[in-house]
């Protein structure tokens, strides 16, 4: 028997909670419940669920608050189940860090499919992070320290922001390969981020200012015009 994924259902309406628990249990998930926001926080920290189904209209707080604060320290997938059907509510929840959004009433099969998808993405993300989070990558005078989550050039910490670090770490992991703008965007801002090369360009300009001697003639991260970016393979800077 594979280990069951634990799903936290945060819902104040007893009938919906009961229905969800039954459906999820019947489909092989272990279910834990919370009826209020404060209780949800406790369950999240003490039980570390694999996924959260979150109602927004809770008696003691707006579920939106839960999304943004949980995202401060956890990547656990959050699927919002809400009676709020306006596009702006969905956008706000997704922007705050929810992985998905289902308007009530929703179909059971659709819900189960979205849960499977969110769990699959989380597993892939976990695998990627395992690779990213250990060891070092050295290329000429630049060193990516994955354990410390810092980048050094000639021994000095260049002071990257979190997103800048993530971009450099990602490119370092695939050093020598061209990563497309789309791939980088999705890896860093999540699968729901729309393609927006501008935000990448701004970040890259800042990164280059910090790591390159001459940002106009980069030695570490190259632009493949119209395609993406590529980090130098260590052999390319072996002379240094
Ligand atoms: Ca509610």
Structural class: alpha/beta
Average predicted local confidence, pLDDT: 87
Largest sheet: 5 strands, parallel
Secondary-structure element order, N to C: EHEHEHEHEHEEEEHEHHEE
First and last CA, distance: 54 Å
Characterise this structure.
The chain has 240 residues and is an alpha/beta fold. The protein is 43% helix and 20% strand. The strands form three sheets. Strands 2-1-3-4-5 form a five-stranded parallel β-sheet, sandwiched between helices. It has a four-stranded antiparallel β-sheet with strand order 6-7-8-9, with helices on one face. A hairpin with a 2-residue loop joins strand 8 (150-153) and strand 9 (156-157). Helix 6 crosses helix 8 (197-211).
How do you describe this structure in short?
With 240 residues, the protein is α/β, with parallel strands linked by helices.
Question: What attributes characterize this protein structure?
Answer:
four-stranded antiparallel sheet; five-stranded parallel sheet; binds calcium ion; 20% strand; 240 residues; alpha/beta
Secondary-structure topology with pairs:
Layout: E1 6-10, H1 14-26, E2 30-34, H2 37-47, E3 51-55, H3 63-71, E4 78-82, H4 87-96, E5 100-103, H5 108-132, E6 136-139, E7 142-145, E8 150-153, E9 156-157, H6 162-173, E10 178-180, H7 181-189, H8 197-211, E11 221-224, E12 228-231
Parallel strand pairs: 1-2, 1-3, 3-4, 4-5
Antiparallel strand pairs: 6-7, 7-8, 8-9, 10-12, 11-12
Helix pairs in contact: 6-8
Bound molecules: calcium ion.
């Amino acid at each position: 028997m594979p280990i069951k994924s634990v799903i936290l259902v945060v819902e104040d309406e007893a009938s919906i909670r009961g229905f969800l628990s039954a459906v999820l249990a019947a489909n092989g998930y272990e279910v834990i419940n919370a009826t209020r926001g404060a209780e949800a926080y406790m369950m999240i920290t003490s039980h570390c669920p694999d996924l959260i189904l979150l109602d927004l209209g809770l008696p003691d707080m707006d579920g939106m608050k839960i999304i943004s604060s949980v995202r401060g320290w956890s990547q656990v997938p959050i699927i919002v189940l809400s009676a709020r059907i306006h596009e702006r509510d969905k956008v706000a929840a997704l922007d705050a860090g929810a992985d998905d959004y289902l308007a009530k009433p929703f179909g059971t099969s659709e819900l189960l499919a979205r849960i499977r998808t969110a769990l699959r993405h989380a597993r892939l993300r976990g695998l990627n992070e395992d690779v990213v989070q250990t060891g070092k990558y050295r290329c000429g005078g630049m060193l990516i320290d994955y354990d410390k989550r810092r980048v050094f050039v000639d021994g000095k910490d260049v002071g990257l922001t979190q997103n800048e670090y993530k971009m450099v770490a990602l490119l370092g992991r695939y050093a020598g390969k061209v990563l497309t703008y789309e791939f980088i965007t999705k890896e860093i801002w999540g699968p729901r981020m729309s393609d927006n090369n501008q935000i990448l360009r701004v970040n890259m300009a800042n990164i280059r200012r910090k790591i390159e001697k001459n940002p106009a003639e980069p030695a570490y991260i190259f632009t493949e015009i119209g395609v993406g970016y590529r980090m130098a393979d260590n052999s390319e800077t072996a002379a240094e």
